[in-house]
Amino acid sequence: MNARPPAMSLTGKVRRLLVYVVFDRVGHIDDFIPYSLGGLREHADTILVVVNGDLTEAGRARLEQVCDEIIVRENVGFDIGAHRDALGYLGERIADYDEIVLTNDTWFGPVRPWAPVFDRMDARPIHFWGLTDHEAQRPNPFTGTGVMPYHLQSYWIAIRRELFLSDDWKGYWENLPPLRSYRDAVLRHEIAFTEHFTNRGWVAEAVFPWSAYDTENPSLFEADVLIDDGSPALKRRPLFHWPPFLDAHAVIGKWTLERAAAHGYPVDMAMANLARTVPPKVLNADAGLLSVVPDTAEPVDEVPALRVVVVAHIFYDEMTDEILDRADNLPTGYDLIVTTPDPDRAARIRATLARRRPDDRRSEVRVLTSNDGRDQSAFLIGCRDVIMSGEYDIVVKLHSKKTPQDGYNVGRHFKDQQFGNLLASRGYAANVLALFQGEPGLGLVYPPMIHLGYPTLGRAWWSNKAGFALLASELGISVPLDDVSPLAPYGSMFIARPEALRLLVDHPWRYEQFGGAEAYRDGGLAHILERMPSYAAGELGYHTRTICTFDYMSLSHTALEFKLDEMSFTIPGQPFEKIDFVRGAGWVGTGSGRDILRMYMRKNHMRAVHRARRIMDPARWPGRWIARVRRRGNQ
Questions:
Q1: Taking residues 324-332, what's their average pLDDT?
Q2: Of all residues in the chain, what percent are helix, strand and coil, respectively (each to 5)?
Q3: Residue 580, phi then psi, degrees to nearest 5
Q4: SS3 of residue 443 by DSSP
Q5: Counting Cβ atoms within 10 Å, is residue 374 exposed (0-12), middle (13-18) or buried (19+)?
Q6: N or C: which end of the chain has fewer CB within 10 A?
Q7: Where are the domains of the chain?
Q8: In which band, very low, low, confident or very high, does the pLDDT at 616 lie, cut at 50, 70 and 90?
Q9: How many angstroms separate the CA atoms of 616 and 628, rounded?
């Protein structure tokens, strides 16, 4: 083994190279990336950006303003493969630097200034350092056995020249095995890197060590505290990790964003990226994007002067007064576009409008050429010109909702849940509009998922998910889909910025695509589109908030709490452990003996299940033989 150079501090002008890895599914460069690199510019002589996958021309132009070189490579090996390729690309040039920083786009910043961090670490006699670290953990959470060693977290590793010019350094990268999965990246690099070098005598240190905090992983569990302590980087993970796991550790993403904002970080920039890259229902939970809106009667002149249009599809024209009562709660006045299926309804609606609407506001009733698609086609086809005219800041989508097929109580609650949580009163509506003024990246608001009277929990995709994925691809929407249920305006009423709906409204829809009354069901276009607004808005960087009244929250939360309590009763552990258990067991079915056996095998003998599946595969000879035996038995 070669002798280790002593660990020394850096003095004088430090020549620093920053290697920053970017990945975006469609090659965008979101605002937070130039902002992050701009904050590091004064501390790095050279910034090399490595793009995994695609890079648009617009993205390249944005990067060129804040970096010195750009490499675009195939997305293989995650950020570790990108770092290895970057080191190979630089070759002997690395000898020109005192320190190399290997980092990536998995953090937002600078939330706090970088200068104190670099000044502090330059003075430390070390060979490499990270911003944060992770305590050793037994058992290793990725394998279930052994020990996960103590390690610096790989989103930021700074290496001094004594190490990166050594044979140990060269050998590490030459012998690094292929990384084909996230699990490989963690086990073979992130948690192995620190131990590999410290076992060989190299000295490492963290700026914000876990030992100074109350958890083994403060970058995830105490991100808000790290910000207050001066960390310039906010890891993205507390804002996209699996919500039940964060729930078990009481990680409150909303608090973290509030701390970042308090220190001057433009949180809207982070939210625009999260809206594009995180499943909307996950983001809604992690960032606390449910607003329980006060019902106070704020003075009208304190509400931003937003240009508002109400677009209402009225099939049940006897509800016209009720809809106008709700719309009249808008504090700054509004224009009104009504769609309806036939001239008779239109005449009755116009009579009501003549009696109630002021002469100085736009009031228009449009008779549609078809009612196929109902309020969805009425909005996207019948009112497309209005929504995308540029005349309005806000569009309020309403329709005459009765739901008579579900019974009186259920229909009454669903209607009240929609209207009440959108336009409860004049003060409430003023506060809802104020949300849009306060958050430039807010695209939509609507009530939370309906669950009283409906079995939506755990199944709200119904049979729409496959069709949704196909249509989203056609529309250019790459926002990840939520797993169990989408974040969606169930009941199809919402308040939105027209621009946030552009991907939906710009599409040249036709009435015949929606089919007749028999096509208005799960799996049909109308039901797919009902679930799409937040994903379409997210693709453009607009996030969604769910909103409700204090009264509705008192009903909804108590019912949800009781239902969750009952469903959790027979399963041990934290909620995320209960979920893991039941998801591992799979679909319960009717609880028959066959269903129970299937669950038992999935839960306890999954290897045997996989072997059985291979044997039963019709493409394999045992499967073909079994199929022939079955056919003979049925003859």
A1: 95
A2: 50, 15, 40
A3: -55, -40
A4: strand
A5: buried
A6: C
A7: 16-277, 301-449+490-517+540-550, 558-633
A8: very low
A9: 12
Q: For the ranges 4-13, 186-195, 224-233, 382-391, which has the lowest average pLDDT?
A: 4-13
Residue spans of alpha helices (H) in 41-165: 57-64, 78-90, 115-122, 161-164
Assigned token pair, 17: 């190279």
For residue 78 the two structure tokens come to 């995650």
Tokens at 106, concatenated: 């998995």
The dotted CATH code for 16-277 is 3.90.550
* Nearest by Cα to 229 from 206, 204, 254: 206
Alpha-carbon distance 627 to 328, whole Å?
66
- Alpha-carbon distance of 64 to 431, in angstroms, equals 41
Strand bridging mode 204-208 / 107-108: unpaired
Nearest to 495 by CA among 268, 308, 300: 308
Q: Write the pLDDT tens digit of every residue in 255-281.
A: 999 999 999 999 999 999 999 999 999
Dihedral angle computed from the Cα positions of residues 376, 380, 385 and 391, in that order, rounded to the nearest 10 degrees = 80
- 301-449+490-517+540-550: CATH topology is Spore Coat Polysaccharide Biosynthesis Protein SpsA; Chain A (3.90.550)
Instruction: Render pLDDT for 566-584 as a digit per residue (tens, 0 to 9).
Output: 989 988 899 888 888 888 8
Gyration radius of the chain over CA positions: 29
Inter-axis angle of helices 408-422 and 550-568, nearest 10:
130
Cα 289 to Cα 543: distance, rounded to the nearest angstrom = 9
Q: Confirm if 327 and 353 have CB atoms less than 8 A apart.
A: no
Nearest CA among 101, 90, 83, 98 for reference residue 41: 101
Strand intervals (E) in 86-208: 99-104, 107-108, 128-134, 151-152, 156-160, 204-208
Percent share of the chain, pLDDT over 90: 79
Contacts of 60 (CB under 8 A, 6+ apart): 29, 70
Distance (Å, whole) CA 378 – CA 380: 6
DSSP annotation of 249: T
Residues 6+ apart with CB under 8 A from 266: 35
Amino acid symbol at 294: P
Distances (CA, A) of 409 to 323, 456, 619: 20, 17, 52
How far apart are alpha carbons 40 and 156 in whole angstroms? 13
How far is the C-alpha of 437 from the C-alpha of 428, rounded, in Å? 15
